[in-house]
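Inputs:
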Amino acid sequence: MLLDKSLNELLTGYRDKSISPVDVINEAYGQIEKYSKDLNTLITVRDKQDALRHLKTLDPHLPLYGLPYVLKDSYSTTELRTTCASKILDNYHPPYDATVHKKLKDAGAILIGKGNQDAWGHGASTENSDYGMGKNPWDSTRVVGGSSGGPAAAVATRMCAFAIGEDTGGSIRNPAAWNNISSLRVTYGRVSRYGCIAYASSMDTVGPFGKTVQDLATVLSVIAGPDKYDATSVAHEVPNYQNELQNTPKKLKIGIAPEMFGNKLDTEIAQNSKDFASKLVEMGHVLVDISLPVAEISVAAYYILAPSETSSNLGRYDGIRYGSSRDLFTQESMRRIMVGTYELSSGYYDAYYRKALKIRTLLINTFQKAFDKCDVILLPENPIMPPKLGDLISDPLANMLADLYNTSVSLIGSPSLVIQSGFHKNGLPIGVQLVGKKFSESLLLALGHSYQSSTDWHAKGPSL
Amino acid sequence: MKKTSLISATDITHLAKLANLPISKERQVILADQIETTFKYIKTLVATDTENLIETNQVTGLTNVLREDIVDDSRTLTQEQALQNAKKTYNGFILVPAILE
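Outputs:
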């Protein structure tokens, strides 16, 4: 398939006319036609003729010229309705574009669909969607992961060239690992959140899904940077991430925390992460013991701060200026809103919310100590393999623990790269995460790229 | 009898009212149980000493991010755009539920 090619190969082909962007767009729509309805991958699909008409208006020299992409349905788009996977916004047509969408559009990329997700970002499986549970392309009886499950599956099934997710407590990382693709949770503030429907504002981040780390670098170079419409975006220099991939890191200190390989971790996933570490050693890096006894307390603190913030953020949905009434929230979303309301209420604020803010400081200090001893931290991604459809949504505790290795990183604002690292004996893919200091995206991407240059886990796709 | 200790049925009704959520009776029962489970897990934080720690509200380190007080025309909605998603409008305004008799 043309869509198996990297973004660079496609762009080079467009410029020397060996590949037609029309053929690639047709191929993407073909895949959507074949698989999206069965797998509940996309919520809304752009009219193909509209996309092709738009292509004709574009300058072929634009950095992402003609590349078809999918956005999580949490992003405001003037071309397509934005539902956030909730019937409350079933007919919502945003009058403005999210900054990430505008930047991609200005760079020549073409939006072709909006990806399924857990409604409002509430979940780790895309089961909590009003548009059908997202199914995993590797095994359609299992969850696709989430909350950005649709965009991840769209990349895995070649419905697009790349996609954009949103990660609060693991929503970009978890589905990447369960779909055998690469993804990046960026440093908080690296990419503008303007126009992304807020879940928990202090942790929400905007980031790419791609077939490879190299593709992530190509997209990140376009979407990163400060935005006057997002006061939490940071004016940190934006390097050319793609050029930075050539600076292959030498002899990095890779931190491994034994506490992150506890009894809640699937033994095969644990072994996979260790094999990944051995490969890094083979590549000339060294492993360093660090201490991070924080997985459980991070999940607990996260489930104070995220519901608190979401109870406030979702207060605006009153069905007056736009959207429908609040009885259409799913049970899962109602639970999170009510938990947050309780935690913020007078008399409980200190015991819960303030306590969690202090835990956040504890986490920052703990990771700081770890980063004093190493350059990058290697963590497992998911503690378990994708469960059967319906299992997580009915079990709030299991749902929370799916993000066991994700929430600490969210709370401290660090970047995390997820890359394909092999397969479980049941045939399903596994990923690991490489966590860095804030704004160390260049280093993480370069390390991930050099790993993928000597492995081929990323080259395997689901047999549909 | 369910040995619920943390969250009572009255709490659920009260929370639903605070959060402006119309909740059916069946859902109230399920939610009471699920919220109980959530809090049991969250309460494990009690064991972590945070006495001497300050709070971290945000991680950017940015303070007082301000902008010029000028109208940004590129971000101004037309009246039509502002009304395009409202279910009830009247003479170019959005109709809201009455709060006074």
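Remarks. Chain B has a mean pLDDT of 91. The radius of gyration of chain B is 23 Å.
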